[in-house]
């Protein structure tokens, strides 16, 4: 019989269990499909705004679209704890330790989200590196 070391983490049955979050329903970790759909909605809004207000002969300027996307992410996270896509798909960004989200968490999360790689790497709780760095978790409402 082998014993696990005392500091070994117990088997996790669902994402967010070790964070004290429920398996399903409100306050459970938002799953990947919902998160990707929200990202597509947010990018589409940024693209349409870029196309409408900053047209180029080729359609839109990619960095203008990225700037609009970042501004929308930051402002909506700061004001209502979720982007337009998050709100439409019934998700909210909350600090892991509770309390107020503040201004620095949305800023750090947005910058890292725009770099793409940190958002594409996540842990067993389905938190991307951008959420880990900001100390946040995206939960269902």
From TrEMBL:
Keywords: Membrane, Transmembrane, Transmembrane helix. The chain crosses the membrane at residues 36-54, 66-89, 101-122. The keyword Transmembrane helix applies. Residues 1-22 are annotated as: Disordered. The keyword Membrane applies. InterPro entries: Pra-immunoreactive, UCP021697. This is RDD family protein. It comes from Protaetiibacter intestinalis.
